[in-house]
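Q: Could you fold this chain for me?
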Amino acid sequence: MVNMMLVIGAFSMLSILTLSINGTFLTALATGLSAQAQLNAFSMGQALLDEILTRDFDENVTGGRRAFSNSDFSTTLGPDGPGEAITARDSSYRSRIKFDDVDDYNNYQRAVYDNLLGWFLINSQVSYARETYPDSLVSTRTHYKVVTVTVTHPNLPTREVRDSTGTYHTVLIPVVLKDIAIYRRYF
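A: Sure. Below is the predicted structure, expressed as structure tokens.
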């Protein structure tokens, strides 16, 4: 009887230890996947941002043409005509061939596959910005365009947010990168 109690106690302790170790492994794995997702998201986002910033500033200044005032820039942000049209969630990088200026990337989406973590979704937005305060977006044409790239993936960190009814929801925290494209006035 005493031996039976010792065996049951030993198995109980072994079960608790095993559950504790498994929980530690799962937490470490989740943390590792989250860190890897963040690194990949930053890398993919920066790659798109670099691609965008290598383009000409505006459709009206491609091919060596120059702009002398803000009114010389295009009034629309986004692809210029059917030749630059790309379907939603492009995963073939056709933007590298079809887009020739920064604002072609406005409302652009790209899906990028990673062998370890699966699909990442990348979105870009382009807006004109105030010359004296580039964080302030404006609807009028200026020599400054703010490019915002947002990357999402299910393994990115999350946070709890309470809505107006008091209910908590888990919200994904995307990776957001910003830079400014500037039309230089050196003639």
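A (continued): The mean pLDDT is 84.
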